Amino acid sequence: MLDRGGFCRFFRLIIYSGEGAGLKNRKRHVNIPIFIPHLGCPNACVFCNQRLISGKKEFSPDTVRSEIETALSTIPAGVEVEIAFFGGSFTGIDRPLMINLLDVAKEYVDSGRVGSIRLSTRPDYIDREILDILKNYPVGTVELGIQSMDDRVLAASRRGHTALQTETACRLIVGYGFRLVGQMMIGLPGADEESEVMTAQEICRLGASAARVYPTVVFRGTELAAMTEAGEYTPLDIETAISRTVRVLEVFAAHNVPVIRVGLCASEHLTSAEEVLGGANHEALGELAEGELYYKIICRELDVAPPRGGRFIIFVPEGEFSKAIGHKKRNRERLMSRYALCGITFREAPRLRPYQIRIDTL
Ligand code: SF4
Q: Which one, 72, 139, 164, 332, has the greatest CB density within 10 A?
């Protein structure tokens, strides 16, 4: 794993509703991910196996234009597009290369074919000098690999920076007027539910416009795999990964901070027993966690006014129908059984915020 945001592999575009926009005005958003593997990163986070995740062994700046062109040819009109430098730590790569890549991306923004630039990096690769450079380019969003705001967890994960450095970086990014996206992990060495909830709260407090949540996957060949085999680390099982993820999703929902990704993208690499030793390695993990949160919220409402075998209609926010009904419609089945209902209908309704629901009797 890595400081990511661009975990989906090279030509897979990431489409989601715009961050921070009101529901009504949300515009579909696409990142064109340019994945820069491990360049400039002298760190050795215990969970990181960047080459495996990127699915790409080498990086060639010469191919960037053709990657952007290929991606642009598949993007429908009316979508907000960002060129996204993901992987490694973009602001830590060789300065001439960083400038070169920013120049290429700027040409696309200047031509009007792309809206802005997005990049991911580490907290200790953010300072005023770097942000002054980024400010000369149409950079809109900086994704920060925060992972945890607990110094014990950061040390056990060998992140090589402190929570204070993260706080300083967040304040600088927001102060310079960039959108901040906070990336955090679930199930790191030394972490527990409390430290993860605290991390999510800190990400909100420090002004993030959006977040990504990555339950830890143990990749073979990483330090974390060695720790697992030595009995020094216990990988998350799927149920625990889901319940701990739900706790942080609740925090982000309470602060109206959209979570634009939960869990790694599905790929053969991620599900292969040859490459994954353990942890939250489930291709529908995000869907399961988001569905679980809806289940929790619906139960909370129904527990206040217990239904008596009636028929209900549950209104959910626009675009949230599949999350609310649950993976393979499991929420509907569980609710029918738990409350002995005759029927439940899910329907999308305008003006509801994510995880806000309304229940009516039919
Ligand atoms: S900072 Fe850590 S997670 Fe990010 S690329 Fe370097 S070693 Fe991997």
A: 139
